[in-house]
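ARCHIVE CARD
SHELF: 3
SLOT: left
DATA:
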Amino acid sequence: MDHWIVALYAAGIGAAGSLAYASALYFGFVFAEDIMKRLWPSSNNSERTGESILRLLWFILIGGAVAFIFQLPESVLAPIQAFIIGTTWPTVVSQVLTGRQSGTSIPNQIDELIVRR
């Protein structure tokens, strides 16, 4: 039961990391024009604005979900790890998927990620 509570805290921290990254993109502190166009396409149409807000919420929720998944096996909260995973989840997910296509098993990928910490 404690693992779930800790993982929920990690999800909140991961979501905050995703929000921080999206904010840095929005305010121009991080230059990634392609990501910004996908996350928040420019348009004066109110429907597009609503769609952009949904995209942003989806981005934040996925960041929290990825941090939740990474925290589940741990019994002690790793807030910095959760924040970084929430911030960098697109890269983490793409690396996992690329490794999967190359034939590396998921347990080996997890072992590699743990060793990198």
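SLOT: right
DATA:
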Amino acid sequence: MSRLNSWSARAALGGLACILTAFVSRPVVAQVGSECNGLAPIAQALCVTYCDVAHCTGNPNAACQALRTQYQGQTGHAAFPCDCGDGVVEDGEGCDPPGSASCGNASNGLQFCDNHCQCDCPSHIEFEGTPGSLGVLEAARIPFSRAGCAI
């Protein structure tokens, strides 16, 4: 009888594991702070802890720095979504604060920092030649800004 109970318990545990796997494989959505939604699960947990639980924005301490280090290891960026707007350009941000004219070497509205602390890239680059002469554009070196746009 004990073998039957042991088998039944294993079968029930296996069934429960299958059910939990089905629920866990769904995208995770944070219940607190929508700015962390859409991140990978581990990055999202770090983000919620940093932004909404520990309130690390503008409060640099060892625990917050440890969260930033872990987040950078997960995402490649040191800036959490809630860092946008603190006036400090972190790795992963192109500019800060949003709305400021802090995107250098840009014009036609592209000089303004967007709501995600990024600088918009131009849609095209125009080259102008000298009238009356033929020439070949052999090589052009186009420098890139911190946001990855040609400047």
